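ok, trying the design again with the full structure, not the truncated one.
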């Protein structure tokens, strides 16, 4: 077993290697790339698209594509860690999403597991959907492209602290990390080995979606004349604690309980099952579930009279709902934009909050917390059906202080402005 002294020495050697050689080398390469772009007067941009739930770049694409200073390509690339059927569904969902918006893209061949080799295009800038190495196919893996200007919008609202959120290789070697607010910048400065030098604050990209003037209604029409409240149940995928992440999902004990809720309240509630995209793969590999049981469970939510299965985008779903019960990470913040009552479910919240930032702990304090079936039922009876929401004012104050979009410009516009200024365009 490695001693503390050996571990300390090894960490010191790696820190020195990164700071004295690799980080400085990459910074010099980035400076040369920026000078080339400035001289050319135009930047070639690739935006990688993994799945609709992870897609944060629609508004940025709409800002950059008509701008003569940018040439933009969208490239599909599924997550390596998912089952093949999940990858296939993600790609098809992404194609349909982009087709509806008339966005041209380079497709991905799942049979050969190869994507568009964008080195032919020789992009200056590559926007990644997640900050992890070995997540995408070899042609798209960020490991191969640190000599380019790599950029990133967080796919979730970062509430945790520590290496997982701020100090992977990508966090330190990317050219720009477009983060949400001052609180997250401070965490990066405290945690990342590069002290957050590559961070720029532009706001939360999904805020541009929540700021739309109108929203479509994705809820199933039930023609029986009964008015129903619309409740979302959104379980996280982390049914086990792995990769240094505390398991936050309560799905295993809530699965059949929530089906019972749907049946018990069928005359009063309409429930949308909105699982985390990775929950399907996790259940496929779980010894007590597996593909057959998982598919049957998802199918029940899709087929019952007062329920529906939601696997795509969530903004319209949120904004046309009445309440939500969940244990997801980013939804802790994102549902503030819906201005509706919300219950966060956790049986170990105090322990879980030890891994969260001060900003996150303040956000959780504005939510209703559920630890058991009885508390969830009380929330449904009192807040969802009864309309009592004593924490509404607290949530609104939090929203005004931290989340209300700044006047004048969107997140996409602020990102474009930083790109233009940083590249000398």
């Amino acid at each position: 077993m490695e001693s503390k002294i050996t571990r300390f020495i090894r960490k010191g050697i790696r820190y020195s290697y990164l700071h004295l050689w690799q980080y400085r080398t990459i910074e010099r390469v980035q400076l040369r790339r920026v000078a080339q772009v400035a001289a050319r007067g135009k930047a070639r941009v690739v935006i990688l698209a993994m799945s609709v739930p992870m897609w944060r770049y629609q508004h940025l694409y709409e800002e950059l594509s008509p701008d003569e200073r940018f040439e933009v390509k969208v490239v599909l690339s599924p997550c390596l860690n998912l089952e093949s059927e999940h990858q296939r569904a993600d790609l098809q969902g992404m194609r349909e999403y982009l087709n509806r918006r008339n966005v041209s893209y380079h497709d991905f061949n799942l049979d050969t597991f190869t994507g568009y080799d964008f080195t032919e295009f020789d992009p200056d800038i590559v926007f990644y959907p997640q900050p992890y190495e070995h997540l995408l196919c070899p042609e798209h893996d960020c490991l191969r492209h640190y000599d380019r200007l790599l950029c990133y919008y967080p796919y979730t609202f970062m509430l945790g602290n520590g290496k997982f959120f701020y100090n992977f290789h990508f966090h330190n070697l990317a050219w720009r990390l477009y983060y949400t607010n001052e609180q997250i910048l401070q965490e990066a400065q405290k945690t990342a080995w590069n002290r957050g030098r590559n961070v720029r604050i532009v706001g939360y990209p999904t805020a541009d979606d929540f700021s739309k003037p109108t929203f479509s209604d994705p809820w199933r029409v039930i023609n029986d004349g009964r008015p129903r409240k619309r409740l979302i149940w959104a379980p996280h995928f982390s049914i086990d604690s792995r990769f240094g992440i505390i398991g936050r999902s309560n799905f295993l004990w809530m699965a059949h309980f929530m089906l019972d809720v749907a049946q018990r309240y069928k005359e009063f509630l309409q429930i949308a099952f909105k699982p985390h995209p990775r929950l399907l793969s996790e259940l496929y590999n779980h010894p007590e579930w597996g593909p057959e049981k998982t598919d049957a469970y998802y199918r029940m939510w899709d087929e019952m009279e007062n329920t529906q299965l939601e696997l795509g985008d969530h903004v319209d779903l949120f904004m046309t709902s009445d309440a939500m019960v969940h244990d997801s990470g980013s939804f802790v913040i994102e549902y503030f934009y819906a201005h509706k009552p919300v219950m966060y479910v956790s049986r170990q919240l105090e322990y879980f909050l030890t891994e969260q930032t001060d900003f996150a702990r303040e956000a959780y304090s504005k939510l209703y917390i559920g630890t058991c079936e009885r508390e969830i039922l009380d929330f449904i009876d009192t807040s969802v059906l009864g309309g009592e929401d004593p924490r509404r004012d607290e949530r609104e104050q939090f929203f005004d202080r931290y989340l209300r979009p700044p006047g004048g410009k969107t997140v996409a516009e602020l990102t474009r402005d930083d790109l233009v200024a940083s590249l000398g365009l």
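Keeping the full-length input from now on. The first helix runs from residue 4 to 40.
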